[in-house]
Predict the structure.
Amino acid sequence: MTRHATDRLLVAATTSVAGVLLAVLGGMPEAAILVAPWAVLLVLGLGNSRLEQSTPTVEVANDRVVVGDEVEVSISWTGAAGTAYVNCLPSGRFWPPNYEGDARRGAQAHDALAHGRATITCLLQATRWGTHDVGRVEFAVTEPYGLFQWKGAAGQSTQVRVHPKPTELQNLLAPWLVRRVTGAHRSKATGRGVEYADIRPYSAGDSLRDINWRVSARSSELWVSLRHPDQATDVILLLDSFVESDHDVHAVVGLAIEAAVALAESHLAVTDRVGLVGLGGLVRWVRPDTGQLQLQHLIDALLSTELYAYVANRNLDAILARMLPPRSFVVALTPLLDDRFVDALFVLAGHGHDVGVIECDAADPEDDESEANDTLQLARRFWEADRQVVRDRLAAHGVAVAGWRKGRQLDLTLEELSRRRQRTVRARRL
Amino acid sequence: MSLRYHLLDVGRLQAGVALGMAGTIATVIALTSSSDTEVAGRLALFGVVLFAIALSLGSARLVGIATLPMLGAALVASVAVAEPAWVRSIVLGIGWYMAVELAWDAIERRDGVKRSSAFNDRRIDEVTTVVTLALVISTAGFLLSFLAPVRTVLVSGLVIICLIAGLRLSTRRLQGEYE
């Protein structure tokens, strides 16, 4: 901590000395009277001055919040006097660039240090998802009467995880492949379940509960109903975190993470096992599992997703072959901009996994339409055509793609993906 | 921003009051100074203009610097008078100090930083203490001047001794509050 003289000291000292000198040497008692408040301020300020101040401790009350919530940072002093000013400095990505909203003002506070102790609370409004460090604060303790100020910085690395806003999904993606565990997805196989599948003649060992009395009454023999059992599946969320230049990568990955959290929550709620593979410069992997703890693991892994510019042609085939459980349901969240990721999708489809793609596009469609430059519009159309070729190639390999833009309901995208998946399977059968 | 916002903005209100006080003090100095001391009025005008500019710029240091021409003007105005203008000096000195404190507080409020009520109470308490002590000591000096109501080093010396003694006593008493 360093000690600084304030403007108040400068003014008080100058006027007091000048006034007293004029009063004594010039025989003008009015000079002393005019500067009396400043002289009083000077004497009181110097009398209450301290040669050292204590360093504050910083504590963060809540380490997990949702976007829009407030993070409470408390700064406590003991053995100090005066008034304190604190300015909380979270890591650079806590707020969007050039963000100067009212929320930022909550990061600064003034308070008085009563009886040598005080706790000042700053409320930081979380506006961006991710894992942020919010433990560092700049502070200034102004001594009584404000002649001197102590300035310094304190704090330790305190991580706060800002979750994306939860999206409640009405629909679940139906996998083609299921595990032999009871769940919420209708299996193609027949067995114990709710949904009607077929009927067959009664055979020894069949349960009397399965007898279809209506059909049996119309014929001379007993018939039993067959049903589709509801089973669980392994859902693997495949996140694309390859960096592409000239795109708002944070927005694109933000969309993907928002969708991933929503999908993870809804599938874990129906006893599916959910895992995560983050493909990018750094390959991240969370084993599929069930339960709320798994949701925390997934969210932690998603929030710590970093974007790396990685140009090496890594052998993703081998990595994916080792990571994914056989015949799992892979939901890829990608802007479909990186060839390595697209190739990985072909590999997964080739290995027999059930793959669906949610194409995340952070671009605002209104911005594209309002583009006046013909050359750019033409380039945009070429680019769109190129992407359509990628989508068609994926569809030909049984991988359906549905687009998701910012502002669109994820449920609509999931419905669209389900429809396209059915068409893709029909086309493959033909 | 709505009109209501402007009316409720304490910082703007404080700045307005500070400017009003500075203007009043400058007017008092200009009007009460004799015709021989036109420089006092001009100095006071310079002081108040400097104060207004500093306030609009948000410069705390410049607000403090405006103290020198303003108090200088008050002093020049009183030099021409044969007898010391005690009451006027007390009122102008304390009035100017309060105007500067208000201006500093208004500048601090510009950032929109959250303030606790304890912080505001402490600030008011400090200013009140300074003003009260200055008033007591100045009045004591004024009363002592009746013993020798002429411009002499004796009177000035008495005032200074009174001032220092008063300050020492008050400092000893107040020191305990913060320990």
About this structure: DSSP finds twelve helices and 21 strands in chain A. Chain A has four domains: 6-47, 57-163, 190-228, 233-429. The longest strand of chain A covers residues 70-78.
